Amino acid sequence: MTAQKVLNLSDLEQDTAVRVVIDDVPIAVVLDSSGEVHAIGDTCTHGDVSLSEGFVEGDTLECWAHGSQFSLRSGRPLNLPAYEPVPVYVVTIDGDEILIDPTVTKEVN
Prior knowledge:
Elements: E1 4-8, E2 16-22, E3 25-31, E4 37-41, E5 55-57, E6 60-62, E7 69-71, E8 89-94, E9 97-105
Antiparallel strand pairs: 1-9, 2-3, 3-4, 5-6, 6-7, 8-9
């Protein structure tokens, strides 16, 4: 599969997550406070709720239901109750377009 346009960069507000679905894969797209665009799995690994409804702070996205914070860079939970990471997707910016391939995840250490 190739990367697909999901949003325009101009559609994103800083420190806010937007939910997109590509081929039945829910993804939270975030423009962080430093201007970097991130894409992580939109389903909390603890409570099966949408992370894009949560709160962005720095380079984390906090689940609104139970408070677990996930790193936007690695997908790892930074606190309990979640202990499983969410996938992190490669983001390509082409002009104003944000492109994501839901079959390509970042390798994080």
